[in-house]
Amino acid sequence: MGLDIRLPIGLMFTILGLLLFGFGILGDKAIYQQALGINVNLWWGAVMLAFGLAMLWFGRRGTRKVKTDPDRE
Amino acid sequence: MKLTIIDWTIMLVYFMFVLGVGFALQRYMKTSKDFFLSGRSLPAWITGLAFISANLGAQEVIGMGASGAKYGIATSHFYWIGAIPAMVFVGVFMMPFYYGSRARSVPEYLKLRFDEKTRGFNAISFATMTVFSSGISLYAMGLLMGVLLGWNFTFAIMVAAVIVLIYIFLGGLTSAIYNEVLQFFLIVFGFAPLVLLGLKDAGGWSGLVTRLNGVATAQGYQAGAWSSSWQFMSAPSHNPMGVEWFGLLMGLGFVLSFGYWCTDFLVVQRAMAADSMSAARRTPLIAAIPKMVFPVLVILPGMIAIALTYQAGSSGFVLPKKLDGTFNYDLAIPMMLGHYFPTGILGVGLTALMASFMSGMAGNVTAFNTVWTYDIYQSYLRPGASDQHYLWMGRMATIFGIAISVAAAYVATRFNNIMDMLQLVFAFVNAPLFATFLLGMFWKRATGHGAFVGLLSGTAAAALHHGLTLPHGAMAGIKGGWFGAMHIYPSEMAQNFWTAIFAWTTCFVVTAVVSLLTKPRAESELAGLVYSLTARPKEDHLPWYKRPAVLGAIVLAVALVLNIVFW
Q1: Are B2 and B8 in contact (CB under 8 A)?
Q2: Are the Cβ atoms of B181 and A9 closer than 8 angstroms?
Q3: How far is the C-alpha of B153 from the C-alpha of B155, rounded, in Å?
Q4: ipTM score of complex
Q5: Considering only CB atoms, which chain A residues are within 8 Å of B21?
Q6: Is B508 within 8 Å of B439 (Cβ atoms)?
Q7: What is the pLDDT of residues B74-118, one digit of tens each?
């Protein structure tokens, strides 16, 4: 129906991933003591970013296919 | 738990996206079919993810975490014996009737198959149930946000209620479903790092099992009672759930799970929105795949929490206690979030928690507005109006459905017992339902009078059984025994399972007997509604991985392997 949901999901995860990743690089490192010394923001931000980009890529590919396929609405 | 600007930003980004989806879909809502059924136009992977996400409300997340701590890995029976077989059954065997009959709701199927009174009974009880369930979950969320973040109760429930209201009002079922897919991924990404960190703290799986052995022996069970799902099911006294394998298999695995997954419109509605018969049938089967691994996300954190409480890890996590000195199991997951997540990822974790509240609530609200509009308003109050009028009514129902939920949440803050009572009554009404559907779909002789009388007697049997029994150590009252305690069950769970078994059996027998005594409907009227009078859906043209039967067999095989591995 009109909107390919992969695009908003991809965009949201890309934004959230970038936010976390950036904060993991730039922010105070002392806060990671409670996370067993792991910079979770950096790592998990990277995972979310990768997922977001993958969704965007699938979504864009899917949208193009629909547009060039005359059998579908 | 202290939030900083980055956590608030993350939460705000999420709110903007869920609302954005609603606004983007607004212009596609032209007919009532678009609003209530997504124009039957969605692909199976979307409806499949929405199918589990709508069920993955906060009670599920918080409750399963709590049960993981309280009962250990045996909680996974709710998935591997409960949900999975039922989801395969509804996809392979029942969906052809729901989707094929073109019924717009589950109560409407009952009307087509049986008669008006059976539909009316189901529609009214279901509509009442959904608004109150969403009220109960709003209440739970308001309390939780107060405990965790010091949020004001009104602020917490208003944020959730207003956002859900706006996106459903604008984009109807499609908006709810699309957001459920988004929420599904957010919940997965929000809880997965918690499990990874907790597991690391507990010394990996083997470290966790060692610690859980300590938990089991400290509570007077054999080592392993928290880490094996079947080994201790031979007798109720051997496992912390207090159930034995027969009650578990029949009560949970058969009656309760099939009753929920196969007849509850909240989930079935997602499949009805699919773009074809085969997509509708694949919906619960695709849903079953992530559902099988969900115990890792929702039960495992609870197990980790209790393990670390009994034998501290390096970070010193302990489960908080209530005033009476018992563990506050419901806080297992929320407290772990606060313990392991520094600001940043904490925002993601809390947003995931919010997302689970919203997905569950949206599921209830969309099911409510559809049943209200089609099965109550159009059927009894104002038949024959224009489609635009019903579309308008759906939007109004969204508003007053949510308003009633909010009111119910406030009532719950003052009279908590009322909500417990309501949930009990709903359990009585739900318990026998699956017998009605089973007979309706697979026995052409079943009649409307039979179904109606069967449902009523099943509900009465549930109430009677509850009134005559008590769980061990409980006082007569809300826990049962108001007619006197004829039998004492070892645990509340055992009592619930057996209440369901009694209700189902009564409904099955009474429906069959009354059906045989009443006049059957002509076979020509039942084509497409009953198994023996319906052509099998053709699926020869589909590749093997899209065939419901093949997918169903794979899902069942994997569930079997999981049961054996964690025996």
Answers
A1: no
A2: yes
A3: 6
A4: 0.90
A5: 3, 5, 8
A6: yes
A7: 888 889 988 999 999 999 998 988 998 889 999 999 999 999 999
As a whole number of angstroms, the distance between CA B219 and CA B76 comes to 20
The alpha carbon of residue B197 is apart from the nearest alpha carbon of chain A, in Å, by 7
Cα B181 to Cα B320: distance, rounded to the nearest angstrom: 33
What is the distance of C-alpha B192 from the center of its chain? 21
B9 close contact with A: CB closer than 8 A: yes
Is B44 in contact with B548 (CB distance < 8 Å)? Answer: no
**Helix, strand, or coil here: B218?**
helix
Count A/B contacts: CB-CB distance under 8 Å: 96
The answer to whether the Cβ–Cβ distance between A15 and B41 falls below 8 Å is no
Looking at the complex, does the CB of residue B343 fall below 8 Å from at least one CB of chain A? yes
- The helix or strand, by DSSP H or E, that contains position B424, with its residue range, turns out to be helix B416-430
3-state secondary structure of B399: helix
Residue with token string 């061990």: B472
Residue B350 Cα, gap to closest chain A Cα (Å): 13
pLDDT along chain B (567 residues), means of 10: 88 94 91 90 92 85 88 88 91 90 91 92 92 87 87 91 94 92 94 92 87 82 82 81 83 86 91 91 93 91 89 79 84 89 92 91 93 93 92 94 92 77 81 91 91 93 89 80 81 86 93 92 85 79 84 89 85
Give per-residue pLDDT as tens, A15-37. Answer: 999 999 999 888 888 888 888 88
**Residues of B with CB below 8 A from A16's CB?**
10, 13-14, 348
Contact A15, B17 (CB under 8 A): no
**In the numeric block, which tokens belong to residue A43?**
């790592």
DSSP structure class, residue B534: S
B558: its two tokens: 């994997």
In 3-state terms, what secondary structure has residue B327?
A: strand
Distance in Å, alpha carbon of B156 to nearest chain A alpha carbon? 22
Q: Are B366 and B51 within 8 A, CB to CB?
A: no
Helix (H, G, I), strand (E, B) or coil at B89: helix
Query: Global pTM?
Result: 0.92
Task: Identify the CA nearest to B295 among candidates B85, B71, B61.
Answer: B61
Residues whose CB is less than 8 angstroms from the CB of residue B229 and which lie 6 or more positions away in sequence, other chains included: B73, B74, B76, B77, B80, B563, B566, B567
**Could you tell me which residues are beta bridge partners of residue B469?**
B487
Say if CB B563 and CB B80 are below 8 A apart: yes
For chain A, say whether B358 makes contact (Cβ under 8 Å).
no
Residue type, B158: M
How many Cα atoms sit within 13 Å of B318 on the Cβ side? Answer: 9
